[in-house]
Every structure is written in C-alpha cells, then in structure tokens.
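quick one, two chains, predict together pls
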Amino acid sequence: MRTLVGTGGSDDSLLALETALDRAEAAGDDVTIAIVENPDSPRSVEEIRGRVEDRLANAGIDAEVRVLEGDPGSRLVEISEREGFDRIVLGGGETSPLGKINIGRIGEFVLLNADVTVTLVR
Amino acid sequence: MTGDHIYPDDPAGPFEPPPRRFEDREGRPIVVREVDGSDGRSLADDREALVEMYVAFDPEDRAQGIPPTGESSIREWLGHILADEAINVVACLPDDGVVGHATLVPDGQGGYELAIFVLGDYQNAGIGTRLIEGLLGAGQRHGAEHVWLTVERWNNPAIALYRKVGFEASDTENFELEMCLRLDPDAQEESAADTSADPDSKAEAETEAEAETEAAESESESESDSRSR
C-alpha cells in the first residue's frame, strides 16, 4: 500500500507517524512522509525533519521525506490524488485538558476533501 | 488546545454558589453541591457515585470522546477530572445518587475548561441550568476568571445553555465551536452573602433553554420555569 503520512509536528501527528511506520515495517507499506507547516504546531519544519530522519535511520526504513509548502490540507489532498496514494494518515486530534478530542484544521480539511481513504490515528 | 482563547470583556454572573436545592420539572428533589468533601460526603463516596453515573451514561450522549466507556477508562478519566486543582459540582438525589456532573479542569494556562453531563432520564428537567450555574458559582468562589469549552457545532441545545449563562463563541473556524466566559473574581463576596439567605426564596422565573448535556437532545424547547415556592 502507498501511504502518505502528513505531519506538522503536533503530538498527535507524530503519533500518527509512529503508527504508520510500525505498520510499514510489519506490512511493507511504501511510505511517503509529508512535512507541512501547521501554524498550531509547537515545532518547526526543520525540527520535524530532523526528528523524522533520525527515526527512519534508527528503524532502517527507506521512506521519502518531503516538505510541502502552502496550505497543508489542500496540498496533501492534491498530492494524494496526483501521485496515486492509497491512503492518507494523519493525527487523530489533540486532547483537551478535560480529555475531549479536538480535530485539527488540517485533519478536518483532508477528511472532507480527499478522495482516498483517510486514517486518523488514535 | 493552546492558551490563546478570546474572552468576553465583561464578566458574566454573578452566579450563586452551591449548595442549591430545588425540585426539577418532574417534581424530583435535587441538590447541586460541590465535590469537596463537605456536606458529610467523602471524596471517595462521590467518586464511586460518579463512576456509577458514568457507567450508566448513554453512549449516544457522549461528546468528543468523553465520558469514556468502560469502568476502568471511566476511573482513569475521573482520576484526572477530580484532581485537587479542578472544581467539580454534582446534582444528587436524596439518596446521594449522582444524576449530573459539571467540572472545571485547569488548562495549565490560568484558565479552566468546562464540561457538563446529565443522565438521560434527568435531561429536559432544568437540572443542567442549575448545575452549570452552581459550577460557575463555585468557580467564582475559588477565584476562577477564565472559562472555555468546545462543543460540537450541531449541538444546539448545549450551545443555547452555554449562551444563556454568558458564554460567547470565540473561534468559529475549528471543527468544534469554542466558547469563552469571564467570571468576576470580585463577585465572590457578594455571592457569599447570597448564601446566607434562603436560596429557595430566590424563585425568579427564568427561561430554560433545554440543554442538559453536551450531547444533542431530540428537541430544544424553551419554556418558563414555574417553580412556585
């Protein structure tokens, strides 16, 4: 399966990345990691890139890493369609102090606009 | 969630702090009281009563993943909600069974996140309004100033209740609606004086925008609460 993992550095998107990479190791998915600029994220694109590359090196996984500029949601949808990905994997939302799940803006846009399967990781 | 909530300029309230005693619209005697070990109830007793309420909670009335389902998840969640710094108010029957719960949980940025839940059989009876007012009264007493919440956009009854007590929508772009309210910390003394009066004598007519839980109810009615005391 060709999987496009979007991460803007929020905690939930980093969890989604871990889950997608675990699955890739077990099932042999072809993973592309798209780093996007999430204004709500505490981490910079460079920081995320460093983290992602370290993780890939440690696990010995060969995955393409690219940085998407522009609106994160629409760029993810566009690339998934143009390049024939089977699935988009994203973080499943941040948890509030009370334990409520709040879906992020990127997740909402992709969920409503993608024509491929979207997985929100919890 | 980040700390960049936008709060109304003017404080809402003042709100009467718990305990508050009243009959709901079905004529059932209800007490709204704070979970703080007072009133001869231990925190452990209240915790067990809350576990019982949430085990009985209709999964259909859940919102944004809470309350969790299953007793162990409920206990874990309540451990967090009933932490020392949080403010909790329950609606109880005379046998101390809990039928409603409202909570203010610190957000780590000086504000509090609010949630309220009422058991299905006790919705549409005016309990949610007293519960949220009691919670805000307790918050005022504890010096809370900034309160926020998120609510699913389709949940009109809940949004109506939040608006009624003074919440204003502050973020219209997210999947969930965010609403904020400012409390007046200086209202503490004023409302503390109120409690010395018989709370039952304050039978002002008020409009009940029926919204007892975070979850949608079949209809949103609006009627005058005719407590005759």
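Chain A has a mean pLDDT of 91.
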